[in-house]
Design a protein that fits this description.
This protein has a single domain, classed as Rossmann fold. The chain contains 6 helices and 10 strands, in the order E-H-E-H-E-E-E-E-E-E-H-E-H-E-H-H.
Length: 238
């Protein structure tokens, strides 16, 4: 069943909102600069699908499992609270903090895992239905082999569209992601580039820090302010 909720469109950045209910492509890639609101929108879109499409089950992945707790897991909890879905009279989600699982009243679930122990991925089973969605946060941290293992998990005949979402900063032009999705056109992939300029809630001090990189560190400026592919070692900038 779908869960009817009222969410004001003003809660979404204009650059992303057209993609809220777009499930046409198997691969959905959100990349670009820091402070663009990519991860926030991905959480919004996936939670929306969980609420509205029966049988949606989501696996959220980072390279290291423990990194989920204070990033992706926290973002889902924050959004559930922000949308008022954890109120006593409208509690639509059960959140298991120790196991890091989130279960909607319609039976759809969210689980979190890491690729530091891929054997654990085989043991992930959802209460109802199949795995339909995978979100890979900081996707440039994983290998192409990691990605292939995840891609193979979405299989079978199912009434819910299979979607894999990748979000990342384009740190290195040598990344397998560029080779796989950017160096040739693919009909099964949607790609959206955004920067801090697309985020109406990005604060002025953070904007100034990004712009200051232009003279201090042009390589970082290209990656994190302009959202362009860089030629730099992996750096985490949140």
């Amino acid at each position: 069943m779908a869960v009817n909720i009222n969410v004001d469109k003003s809660m979404f950045n204009e650059a992303f909102i057209a993609q809220l209910e777009n499930y046409d492509k198997r691969y959905n890639i959100y990349y670009g600069g820091a402070g663009a609101g990519k991860s926030v929108f991905v959480v919004q879109k996936l939670l929306w699908k969980i609420l509205n499409k029966r049988g949606t089950n989501l696996l959220v992945v980072r390279k290291v499992a423990k990194d989920n707790r204070h990033s992706t897991f926290s973002e889902f909890k924050k959004l559930i609270s922000f949308w008022g879905l954890d109120r006593p009279n409208k509690r639509l989600f059960a959140i298991n903090k120790s196991e890091m699982t989130i279960t909607c009243v319609n039976g759809n679930q969210i689980m979190f895992a890491g690729l530091d122990d891929t054997s654990k991925l085989k043991g992930i089973v959802f209460t109802k239905g199949l795995l339909s969605d995978i979100w890979i946060e900081e996707a440039d941290q994983i290998t192409d082999e990691d990605f292939d293992l995840l891609d193979l998990r979405l299989r079978g005949k199912y009434h819910v569209p299979f979607n894999i979402t990748l979000s990342f900063n384009p740190v290195s032009a040598l990344s397998w992601i560029k080779r796989e999705f950017f160096d040739m056109e693919r009909e099964d992939a949607f790609i959206l580039k955004t920067t801090y300029k697309d985020n109406e809630w990005c604060d002025d001090k953070y904007k100034d820090k990004l712009e200051d990189l232009k003279n201090k560190n042009p390589v970082l400026y290209d990656i994190y302010a302009l959202g362009d592919w860089g030629s730099f070692r992996r750096i985490s900038l949140h």
